[in-house]
Amino acid sequence: MKPQVYRSKAAWLLGWLWMLFAAWNVWDLTAHGHLPSALIAGAVLGVITALVFVMALRPAVIVEEGGVRVRNVLRNAYVPWSGVDDVSVTNAIVIESGDTTVRCWTPQATARERVRAAGRAAKAAKSANKAERAAAEAVGARTHADWVADQLTEMSRSRRESSSGETRVTWSPSAVAAIAAAIVLVVAAFVVS
């Protein structure tokens, strides 16, 4: 089974656009910059790029055969299907597994998205078309986060037997390395300037 990945597509796209912008600026600073101003600009660029990486590109909910993997800003979590006790949505998807609570960074249900979904449901419920009314009743005022939470709940019920592993939450090596590299750039900029 190919893993399914749920994330904010807008954040992912903007994150990669920033990475292209940052790569072009690194080339420009390397080719045309002069110390110490190029190193200071590079440090600022490095800090922003590290933040974009950990906040826009990393976060995802990955559905695998044996469980769900959650990549948040600085931490990774894995919950096997047999370990999923409850999945709920507040402003974020929350997965309960024994004493462990995993809040998913993405997808989130914002207040604005909830209002828009409720408006769509109310408009469709007033429709003369029977099919649109039935769809409005089925979907209701659900957001993308609600839909993902329902998918996770359904999969945890149907895949309990194919579950593997144990619930674990760990620091993300790539996120920690990105933040550490940004800190090194800042320190180097202060030392040189």
Automatic annotation (TrEMBL):
Keywords: Membrane, Transmembrane, Transmembrane helix
Domain Low molecular weight protein antigen 6 PH: 58-122
InterPro entries membership: CFP-6_PH
Membrane-spanning segments: 38-57, 169-192
Protein name according to UniProt: PH domain-containing protein
Organism from which the protein derives: Microbispora hainanensis
